[in-house]
Amino acid sequence: MMKFSLILFAAVFVFAGCSQKSGEGNLKTAEENLKNNKIEEAIADYEGFIKDNPENVKAPEALTKLASIYQSKMLKTIPDSESLERAANIYRQVFDRYPKSTQAPTSLFMSSFILANELRNYNAAEISYKLFLQEYPDHELSNSAHEELNNLGLSPEEILKKKNAPNT
What we know:
75% of the residues lie in helices and 0% in strands. The chain has helices at residues 2-35, 39-52, 59-71, 80-97, 104-118, 122-135, 142-150, 156-164. α2 (39-52) packs antiparallel against α3, α4 (80-97) runs antiparallel to α5 and α5 packs antiparallel against α6. Mean pLDDT is 88; it is low at 1-22.
């Protein structure tokens, strides 16, 4: 019985190692496809890695790379607005699914930024920026989040006018 348990343990260990390697292969393939401008293939590779390896330490990084593809509007088969919505949602997933990851604060900020400045969804952006400030008050982007909140919905001209106005 002990021998059977040992063999079973070894088989599970080998299988886990193989699936981990295949996941890492997806990431390498995704990077290569992205470098070669094979955007649809890169997206499929990143999505496959995330789906198959949600607990992998590299999953938040894969999500942020996927979000950046959409933020950059690299996939030409969908409208820019849809691409930006996907980017904002994926960045938010990083925070929701991996709040302790090093990518979580910047991803939450980026989601807020896209909502405010690209999609003009000011209500959602305000909620998101406030969440960022609540969760990461001392983060290097917290001053930027305060600025964004103070200028939410204002045009560049209105922001300049506000900054140049005498304090009353």
